[in-house]
Structure formats: C-alpha cells, structure tokens
Amino acid sequence: MKTEENKSGNRNAGEETTGLNGEIKGSNTIKDPDEWTTGDEPMTGAQHSYLTTLSAEAGEDFDETLSKADASKRIEELQHKTGRGLDN
C-alpha cells in the first residue's frame, strides 16, 4: 500500500483523497492536528513552502519554528484570510 504525505504532513494510505487537515473526502472523519503522533516534529518541506507563500500573500510574518501540527493550524488560518486553497 502506498503512503503519501500532503502539505500538512498527514500520511495517507492507498488511493484515498484527503484534505489539508487529514479528512478523507466524503467522510466525516477529521483528525485534530493536536492528536497527531508526529505533530511535535518540525514542519515538512511542503508545509514550509506553502506557509511561505500564504504568509507573503496575507502580509503576515512566517515562523520557521512551527511544528507539523502548528503549521497545519497556521495554514488553515491563512487560507481563510487569503481565500487560497479553500473548497467553496
């Protein structure tokens, strides 16, 4: 079974499509970043890149020290502020 990592650092098995917070599209299951077993690890490269872009677009400072879980929360905040990456 293939494992993939999305921009928030979630690992997804198989062919399922997931959103930035680990929810499986078509499912009501959402895993809170505070409950991630790897949430305390440094943010992923993908998170770093995306947060750099979102922070610049939002005119906000970028914090390079965020953990995976905190980076995921920050991505969600900045998506709401910029409108980028939101499914409407």
Descriptive labels:
7% strand, mainly alpha, 88 residues, 33% helix, 2 strands, disordered N terminus
Shape: globular
Helix content: 25-40%
Q: What is the string of helix and strand elements? A: EEHH
| Oligomerization state | single chain
Please summarize the sheet with the most strands. 2 strands, antiparallel
Mean pLDDT: 77
Number of strands: 2
Total helical elements: 2
Q: Helix/strand/pairing class, anyone?
A: mainly alpha
| Rg calculated over all Cα atoms | 13 Å
Proportion of strand residues = 5-15%
Distance between the termini: 31 Å
Low-confidence stretches: 1-5, 12-16
Strand order of the largest sheet: 1-2
In terms of topology, how is this protein built?
Blueprint: E1 3-5, E2 11-13, H1 45-58, H2 68-82
Antiparallel strand pairs: 1-2
Please summarize what this structure is.
By secondary structure, this protein is mainly α.
Question: What features would you describe in this structure?
Answer:
This protein is mostly helical. The chain is built from two helices and two strands; from the N terminus they run E-E-H-H. The chain has helices at 45-58, 68-82; strands at residues 3-5, 11-13. It has a two-stranded antiparallel ribbon. A hairpin with a 5-residue loop joins strand 1 and strand 2. Helix 1 runs parallel beside helix 2 (68-82). The longest helix has 15 residues, at 68-82. It is globular, with a radius of gyration of 13 Å.
